[in-house]
Write a structure and sequence with these properties.
The chain is α+β, with helices and mostly antiparallel strands. It has helices at residues 3-12, 15-34, 37-44, 54-57, 74-77, 93-99, 104-109, 119-122, and strands spanning 64-68, 128-135, 138-143, 149-154, 169-175, 194-200, 205-208, 212-214, 219-228, 234-243, 252-261.
Length: 276
Amino acid sequence: MSVLGTRGVLTNMTSQAARKYQTSLTWATVAVFLCLPGVAHSQGRGGAAAPAAAQEIAPIDLTGYWVSIVNEDWRWRMVTPAKGDYASVPINAEAKRIADLWDPAKDEAAGEQCKSYGAPAIMRVPGRLHITWQDPNTLKVETDAGEQIRLLHFGKGTPAGGAATWQGDSVATWERGSGGPVMPVAGNAPRYGDLKVITKHIRPGYLRKNGVPYSANTTLTEYWDLNKERNGEQWIEVTTLVDDPTYLQVEWATSLHFKKEPDGSKWDPTPCSARW
């Protein structure tokens, strides 16, 4: 069947039949791939070759020092909002009740000054990032604000259980622009893609410093894109999706921006603060 004919068939099928047809094409493609000499040879030796390390196949380089550029929600990010100022966060009635009880002095007395520096909120705190590879399958993101460390783990393995932490357990994958997984690229061929991170098992804290809560049921999904300007500047755009069925009416979506710096001369780690 010609390509044109195939499109015609898919157009006239019901959505369910189209999905079945596309699935059969996908498995046919996989079957052809497995018949390739290199793949057959590796299978004959007792299994497929070990997958390449995340650092090796990275489509973008996120390492270095980055500074946040606050061009969204300035009034809620650059200063601590007043109690009761919850605009733009889709909280429910129970979340509002809890936020109305916010008392930074109590957080300080309890040693919980970092409640607004957890994974669902830390990228919105103005400051700098230092990104390095801790090992070939773990990307390390340090923040000077609150002296937090995020570990983004690639591969099927996930961090061990135990007590929830401010930064939770993050599982990362490289994605092509179409959303599929990034595969090894031969030689110096160009690579394209972004980073997807899903974080769970997070210690409850604040989405906003004035007491807007997130719960232990929160799932944070992030998409990290790297943009390079003609003048040489590099920017990271992080799209964040916070899903908390306990305190949010709908998923909370925001967009954050970071500009690359030439070195770490402006790196200035400061401890968590419950007030500013």
